[in-house]
Specification:
heterodimer, A: mainly alpha, B: alpha/beta, 8-stranded parallel sheet, 8 strands, 40% helix, globular, binds zinc ion
Chain lengths: 104, 285
C-alpha cells in the first residue's frame, strides 16, 4: 500500500545524537533479561513458547534491514484465521502457542 | 496546545486526572464503554454504568472545562456471554438520545471467539439501525493481527456502515496498513509500558502519513497515562515535526472524525477559516 508519508525532519546523525543513550539502555535491559534467564538455569524456560517466540524475534531484530517491527509483531501473532469455539482465558499472553493449536 | 483525547476511560480515573488533562490543554475527550476489570453481575449493572457515562462524568469533566462525550456498548471482554450481550443491547437504544453519546463503542473482539463475533455483529446491527458512528477495539498482543483482519472482513461483508464512519483502535505496525488501506480511521493508543510508545506511534505516522489517524491515551484502571497525548506532542517536537502536523493529529483529526456525529460540538468553525477556538465545555447540570 502506498500513501503519502510525513518524513522525519532529523538526519540519521541527529537521530543518533538524540536517541542513542535511551536505546543503548534498552539493549542492555534486554541482555540483562536473557542473562537472568541463563542464571535461573530452568529447562522449562527454554521450552516456554513465549521465549521461543522471543528468540525468533531477536533473530529478526539482528537480521538484515526491512520493517523489523512489523516482522517481529508477526512472529508473536496468532497466524490462524478461524474464531475459537469457546473462551479459554480472558487475556492474551503476548505470544501464540503453536503447540496448543496442534499445528505448526 | 489544545487537544482531544479520543479514548479515555474517565469513569476509572480520579478528579486529579481530569485536572492534569485540563492543565495540559485537553478540551474534550471521549469515554468508550469498557470492562470494569471484573465481569458485571447482571445486565442491570449497565444501567448504572450508562448513567455514569452520560450524566455523572460530563459534570466531573465540565468542572475543569473539558467536554465529555461517550460511546455505548457491551465491551469485548464480556462479549462472549451471549445472554448478557442480548440483555445489554436491549438497553442501549434508550440511552442513544443522551446529549453526550456519539455512537457505538468500543465494540470488537477480545479473544476472538464465535460468540464474540456474534456480539460484534449485533452491535453493527444496532449502529446501522440508529445511524451511529462506531469505535472499534482490536485485541491486544498475539490476538491483534487475527482479530483486526476478522473485524475488517466482517465490516466489509456487512457493508452497511461507511468505513469513514468507523475508527478501528489500538492499531500497531502489523495492522495499521490493513485499517487505513480499507478506508477506515485508525486509532493509536499510547501506553507507558505494554503497548505502543509515542516514538513508535510517530514512526507509524511518518510511514503512513497524518491522514485518518488519531492518537489517544486509552487511560483506564490499569497502568496508563491520562496525559499521554501531550507527551506524544512533546515527542513530535523532539523529532522535529512542525506544529501544524501536531495540531492536525491531536486536535483536527479527532474533530474531523467525531463531527460525523451531530452531537460533537467542538471546533465546528475549524474549516470555515475564521480561526474560532473550540467551544467551551457546558456548565455542570
Ligand atoms: Zn478502551
Amino acid at each position: 500500500m502506498e500513501r503519502d508519508f510525513l518524513a522525519c525532519p532529523l538526519t540519521g546523525t541527529r537521530l543518533i545524537d538524540e536517541y542513542f543513550i535511551e536505546n543503548r539502555t534498552r539493549l542492555l535491559d534486554l541482555a540483562a533479561f536473557l542473562d537472568r534467564l541463563d542464571r535461573a538455569a530452568d529447562p522449562a524456560a527454554d521450552a516456554d513458547f513465549r521465549m521461543q517466540a522471543f528468540r525468533e524475534g531477536l533473530r529478526v531484530l539482528c537480521g538484515s534491514s526491512g520493517p523489523r517491527v512489523e516482522r517481529i509483531q508477526r512472529v508473536f501473532s496468532d497466524p490462524t484465521t478461524e474464531p475459537a469455539d469457546g473462551l479459554d482465558q480472558k487475556s492474551a499472553c503476548g505470544a501464540y502457542d503453536h503447540s496448543k493449536a496442534g499445528g505448526a | 496546545m489544545e487537544y482531544i483525547d479520543l479514548h479515555a476511560h474517565m469513569a476509572s480515573r480520579t478528579t486529579d486526572d481530569y485536572e492534569q488533562m485540563a492543565l495540559t490543554g485537553c478540551v474534550a475527550l471521549t469515554d468508550p464503554a469498557f470492562w470494569a476489570g471484573f465481569d458485571r453481575a447482571s445486565a442491570d449493572s449497565f444501567d448504572d454504568y450508562f448513567h455514569q457515562l452520560t450524566e455523572v462524568e460530563p459534570k466531573r469533566a465540565a468542572r475543569v472545562g473539558i467536554r465529555h462525550y461517550t460511546w455505548l456498548c457491551l465491551n469485548p471482554k464480556e462479549a462472549d456471554n451471549r445472554a448478557l450481550a442480548r440483555a445489554v443491547l436491549e438497553k442501549i437504544p434508550k440511552y442513544l438520545d443522551r446529549a453526550n453519546v456519539l455512537g457505538i463503542g468500543e465494540i470488537g473482539l477480545n479473544r476472538i471467539t464465535r460468540n464474540e463475533v456474534a456480539t460484534f455483529q449485533d452491535h453493527l446491527d444496532l449502529a446501522a439501525a440508529h445511524r451511529q458512528i462506531v469505535l472499534i477495539h482490536t485485541p491486544h498482543l498475539e490476538d491483534k493481527y487475527k482479530g483486526t483482519r476478522l473485524i475488517v472482513e466482517t465490516l466489509q461483508r456487512d457493508g452497511r456502515i461507511d468505513p469513514g464512519r468507523i475508527l478501528i483502535d489500538h492499531a500497531e505496525e502489523h495492522t495499521i496498513g490493513i485499517i487505513l488501506g480499507n478506508g477506515f480511521w485508525a486509532g493509536i493508543t499510547l501506553y507507558p509500558q505494554t503497548k505502543v510508545s509515542p516514538q513508535r506511534a510517530i514512526d507509524m505516522i511518518e510511514r503512513f502519513g497524518p491522514d485518518r489517524i488519531c492518537v489517544s491515551s486509552a487511560c483506564d484502571w490499569g497502568p496508563s497515562l491520562p496525559i499521554a497525548v501531550p507527551r506524544f506532542a512533546l515527542e513530535m517536537r523532539r523529532r522535529g515535526h512542525d506544529e501544524k502536523w501536531i495540531r492536525k493529529i491531536i486536535y483536527e483529526n479527532p474533530i474531523t472524525f467525531l463531527s460525523q456525529s451531530p452531537r460533537f460540538l467542538i471546533g465546528q468553525k475549524m474549516n470555515d477559516g475564521n480561526g474560532r477556538k473550540a467551544q467551551s465545555a457546558p456548565s455542570g447540570r
